[in-house]
User: Which sequence fits this backbone?
């Protein structure tokens, strides 16, 4: 084997390794993009998202003066992807506490009522547009 042939083989080996590295880098970048998309567009609604949405609703109880909520605790149901029905307990600054049964649609809007059907909460979960999977 002559020196010219050895040089050609070495160049070819370096090119093959470079192309393989580029393929791995591109594939890795695509998985990062998919990860970020899943973070920004979750397919399953999480309790923190629901709590952040219902805590924006004012106190519906007469005499509660439509006081702001202090905090909310939400527990999901079992139906994916939006995990209906949700049960959220909201504590208002007025001292009132209301427990809602909430149903969330696939576009992120929700509506709920207390057990008596007297008090209603509705809104939209930020970041939702929930998908049906995949």
Assistant:
């Amino acid at each position: 084997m002559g020196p010219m042939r050895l040089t050609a083989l070495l160049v070819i080996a370096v090119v093959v390794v470079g192309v393989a590295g580029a393929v791995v880098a591109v594939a890795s970048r695509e998985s990062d993009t998919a990860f970020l998309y899943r973070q920004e567009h979750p397919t399953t609604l999480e309790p923190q998202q629901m709590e952040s949405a219902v805590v924006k609703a004012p106190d519906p109880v007469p005499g509660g003066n439509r006081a702001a909520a202090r905090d909310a605790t939400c527990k999901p149901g079992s139906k994916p992807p939006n995990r209906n029905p949700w049960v959220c307990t909201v504590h208002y600054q007025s001292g009132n506490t209301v427990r809602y049964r909430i149903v969330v649609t696939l576009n992120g809007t929700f509506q709920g009522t207390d057990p008596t059907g007297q008090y209603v909460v509705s809104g939209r979960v930020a970041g939702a547009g929930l998908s049906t999977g995949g």
The mean pLDDT is 83.
